[in-house]
Amino acid sequence: MAKFFGNLNLVMLVGLLLAILVIVAIGPLGDQVNGLFRWLHTFFGVLWIGLLYYFNFVQVPQMPNIPDEAKPAVSKHIAPSALFYFRWAALFTVITGLVVAHLTGYLVQALVLQEGYLLIGIGMWMALIMAFNVWFLIWPNQKKVLGMVEADPDAKASAAKVALMASRTNTLLSLPMLYCMVNANLGG
Prior knowledge:
This protein has seven helices and no strands. By secondary structure, the protein is mainly α. It is flat and about 55 Å long.
C-alpha cells in the first residue's frame, strides 16, 4: 500500500477511474455527461483557487522569512510547478464551466446577465476576469520574476508588482465569485 500511495500519478489515475465508474453507474447518458463536466469543473476550480490561496496566504508571505540560500528551491522548483497547475487549472475551470452552462442551457442568458441568471452570470464574468489575469498578467510577469524570461532587476521588480496586484485582485474576486457559483441555483 505504501508503494501505491507513494505514487501520486497512480493514485490520481485510480481516483479518476473510480469517479468515472460512479458517474457511469448512476444515471442516464445526458445526466452523466453534464455530471462529468460539473465534476471536472469542481475539480479544476478547487485546484485553481487552492493554488491561488496557497500563493497568497503561504508562499508570498513566507518568502521574506526564507533564507537567501534556500530561495532558489522555491523560485526554481516549487513556484514554476505550482504555476503550471495554477494556469492550466484556471483554463480548464473556465472551459468546463462554459460547457456545463451550455449543456444546462443557460450559457447565453448568464453571459448577458439575464434576469434569473444574474448570480451565475456575475460569477462567470468574475471567473473570466480572473482567468485573464492568470494568463495575461500573472504568468507573463512571474516568468520574469522567476528568471524564466530574461529581465533586468528593474523589470523584475515591476513584474513582481504587476503579478502581485493581479493575484490579489483574483483573491478579492474569488470570494464573491464563489458566492455566486454556490448560490446561483437560488435564483437571481
